[in-house]
Q: What sequence folds into this?
């Protein structure tokens, strides 16, 4: 990770996530997952989030290292149709038990309500949130369903394609398209609040909350903030203009003519040059994570 040009180490650095490609607590991966977690805790300290559907017992929950922030997400999108939609995954009740053990171990598990499935969530939402709350969930992260032609055909076999088709502007092709559902997300967040659960529109916000640092995705600037108790804006780091100029020079070989640090944005004036254009994307991402502010480059000369 340290060799990745986009990576910023430390608690105020890049947020790490495990679970996008495969379940980190699949039985064949548990040892490797714990090894990675320990390495991150010992050498980097970055906030780390994992999403899982796997059973986690008390012993395994205690093995998860705590020296760096950990944000557990337990994926659960249906109780009623679990066997049909996820025939090879552990049952919802095993996942709720995992949530319970994570909470007992001192962590802050969240219900990962993604994807929200129109036509199903309307009749299951209240029970899902109630069960998660009873199992010790601190909050819920909501997210949209993305479908392709093949995925929609699978959902049709269990009678769930109709409400999804109604929300799509056109039939999906081979690629994934998001199913618009702002009304369902809003209702999930509203009901979560009623039940005493924190609501998050993005996983990075849940990660930030568990780490008690400002969101690395700048969610308060990009329409994802739900005004959770983390109060990101009160935790923004102090940034000196000379530090920005020095960082660009040392890390990226870029000469900044000036840097103006605002409350939520940093404007940097650069001299036009081929090298600057090649590294601009990396520099922008790294500086946004490090400063927790939007970076705007302007060309001069």
A:
């Amino acid at each position: 990770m340290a060799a990745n040009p986009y990576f910023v180490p430390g608690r105020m650095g890049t947020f790490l996530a495990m679970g996008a490609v495969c379940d980190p607590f699949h039985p064949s991966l548990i040892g490797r997952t714990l090894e990675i977690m320990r390495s991150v805790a010992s050498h980097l300290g970055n906030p780390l989030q994992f999403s899982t559907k796997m059973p986690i017992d008390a012993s395994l929950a205690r093995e998860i290292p705590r020296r760096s922030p950990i944000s557990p997400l337990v994926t659960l999108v249906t109780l009623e149709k679990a066997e049909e939609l996820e025939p090879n995954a552990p049952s919802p009740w095993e996942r709720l038990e995992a949530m319970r053990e994570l909470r007992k171990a001192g962590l802050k598990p969240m219900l990962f309500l993604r994807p929200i499935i129109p036509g199903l969530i309307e009749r299951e939402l209240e029970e899902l949130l109630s069960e998660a709350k009873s199992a010790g969930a601190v909050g819920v992260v909501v997210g949209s369903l993305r479908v392709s032609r093949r995925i929609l055909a699978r959902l049709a076999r269990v009678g769930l394609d109709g409400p999804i088709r109604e929300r799509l502007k056109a039939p999906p092709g081979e690629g994934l398209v998001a199913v618009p559902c702002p009304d369902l997300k809003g209702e999930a967040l509203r009901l979560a609040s009623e039940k005493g659960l924190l609501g998050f529109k993005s996983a990075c916000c849940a990660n930030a909350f568990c780490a008690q640092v400002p969101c690395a995705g700048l969610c308060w600037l990009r329409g994802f903030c739900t005004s959770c108790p983390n109060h990101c804006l009160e935790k923004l780091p102090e940034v000196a203009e000379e530090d920005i100029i020095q960082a660009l020079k040392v890390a990226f070989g870029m000469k900044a003519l000036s840097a103006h640090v605002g409350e939520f944005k940093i404007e940097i004036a650069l001299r036009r040059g081929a090298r600057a254009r090649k590294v601009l994307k990396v520099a922008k991402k790294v500086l946004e994570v490090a400063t927790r502010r939007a970076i705007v480059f302007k060309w001069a000369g």
Q: What stands out?
A: The CA atoms of residues 81 and 276 lie 52 Å apart. The mean pLDDT is 96.
